[in-house]
Amino acid sequence: MTTPPPAARPAAALAQEVRQLTQGRPYTVVDETDDAFTVHIDVVDAQWWTLFQRKGLRYVFTHLVKVSDDGRSYSVRDTRKTLAWQAGLDVSGGMPRPVIRGGMSYATGTIREFSFRKEFAFDDDLRPGVVVDYTFSSGEGNALIEQAATRLGLRKTMNGVSKLGLGVAIFAVVGPALGLGIAALAGAFG
Fold first, then answer.
1. What is the rounded distance in angstroms from the CA atom of residue 101 to the CA atom of residue 88?
2. Per-residue pLDDT, 190
3. Which parts of the chain register pLDDT below 50?
4. What are the sequence ranges of the domains in the chain?
5. How many helices (DSSP H) and strands (DSSP E) are in the chain?
């Protein structure tokens, strides 16, 4: 069985459009399949020294783009992954003690975020300076995908995780109201 040419596969055509729009920007198109691909950006991947500790931060943001089976619409699921760690001595409380700490966060669905961070510390050569410096907007990657999809005439739909979240939110609001209504009816006829 032969693979159809890229023009016959809407996900491949959309991935190619996004790739063209992201040239010269820190985004990459990866993990292409017949109906999906990922737009990836390493927001920051840094390690540095403070006076008594080694610290690290890795922050990755991805947009999973899925094209419908009929090739007329697409959805985008955003994912944010952050890993921060530190190792060394903790000098709070007057007595130095060894410490190893880490933390990780993960979020997926429809994420709208604007963030910035600047940290001054020592680099690996123990020279002082800026070791983390970024400004990030999740809207930039989404806008590039939307621009490429518009060129191809694709319509955006809600991703599955966001649909689930919306359903839970509606149930959280409507469920108690229905329960009160049923209780009121039971009380009126009881």
1. 9
2. 58
3. 1-7
4. 6-157, 158-190
5. 3, 8
Phi-psi region of 94 (alpha: psi -120 to 50; beta: other; left: phi over 0): left
User: What is d(CA 79, CA 64) in angstroms, rounded to the nearest whole number?
Assistant: 8
What DSSP state is assigned to residue 153?
Answer: T
Buried b (16+ CB within 10 A) or exposed e, 159-183: bebbeeeeeeeeeeeeeeeeeeeee
Ranges of beta strands (E only) in the chain are: 27-30, 36-49, 53-67, 73-90, 97-109, 114-122, 128-137, 155-156
pLDDT digits 0-9 by tens, 91-146: 887 788 899 999 999 999 899 999 999 999 998 888 999 999 999 999 999 999 99
- Closest by Cα among 18, 68, 74 to 41: 18
Q: pTM for the complete prediction?
A: 0.77
Q: Is 71 left (phi over 0), alpha (psi -120 to 50) or beta?
A: left
Alpha carbons 182 and 190: distance in angstroms, whole number: 12
Of 1, 2, 17, 6, nearest in space to 153 by CA: 17
Rounded to whole angstroms, the Cα distance separating 190 from 187 reads 5
pLDDT at site 181 = 66
